[in-house]
Design goal:
Elements lengths: L5 E8 L2 E8 L9 E6 L5 H6 L3 H6 L2 H11 L3 H25 L3 H16 L5 H9 L3 H13 L13
Antiparallel strand pairs: 1-2, 2-3
Helix pairs in contact: 4-5, 5-6, 5-7, 6-7
Length: about 160
């Protein structure tokens, strides 16, 4: 995989290599990405058949999660991430309440969003909406403004809802 930061667990299943990836930080469930590729020494007839359901059933997901959890930071790190997210969300909310949609607010909002996304928060926009006490649609508009102002790069690739 092309990820530079995170945890990767690799398993060999017959002619196939299964790579599972988690972002850096506490592991809170299954992998965010799975890639299955033919092994370098795989027999050509097996590769020609393609990935079968048998290969998929044999992937040891619980074992991979356990290995990723061993590599990930412990509860102290998870607590630090949660505390930092709380702090960033509170700062953005205070700025919004005090100044409205100011440059400082957009920068704080972008920082909170980027931190949440980088630390594996599922649906960072929804988390952020709760943190700033706004609905998700308004938060998306604010994030769009932060993007246009240059505080966030590109479209949201982390948000799934």
């Amino acid at each position: 995989m092309t990820e530079t930061s995170g945890y990767e667990v690799t398993q060999r299943q017959g002619a196939w290599v299964v790579r599972m990836w988690w972002p850096h930080g506490p592991v809170s469930g299954g992998p965010q990405r799975i890639a299955i590729e033919a092994a370098a020494d795989a027999p050509a007839p097996e590769v020609a058949r393609g990935i079968t359901t048998t290969v998929l059933r044999r992937v040891d997901l619980p074992g991979a999660v356990a290995l990723a959890e061993e590599e990930s930071p412990g509860q102290d790190a998870a607590h630090e991430v949660g505390a930092k997210m709380q702090e960033l969300g509170s700062t953005a909310r205070a700025l919004l309440d005090r100044e409205g949609i100011s440059r400082a607010y957009l920068a704080a909002l972008a920082a909170a969003y980027a931190y949440a996304a980088a630390n594996g928060v599922s649906g960072p926009t929804q988390w952020l909406a709760k943190a700033i006490n706004r609905n998700t649609a308004n938060t998306r508009v604010h994030l769009s403004r932060a993007r246009k102002a240059g505080y966030l790069n590109g479209p949201s690739s982390h948000d799934r809802g």
